[in-house]
Amino acid sequence: MINLIIDGGIARVTLNRPDKLNSFTSAMHEELQQVFATVESDNRVRVLTITGAGRAFCAGQDLSDPIPGGDLGHPVKTYYSPLIRRIRKLPIPVIAMVNGVAAGAGANLAFACDLVIAAKSASFIQSFAKLGLIPDTGGTWILPRVAGTPRALGLALLGDKLPAQQAADWGLIWKCVEDGDLPSTVHAIEDQLVNSGPLGLAKTKEAIWDANLKTLDEALDLEGDIMRELGYTSDFAEGVAAFKEKRAPRFTGT
Question: Is the pTM of this model over 0.85?
Answer without folding.
Answer: yes
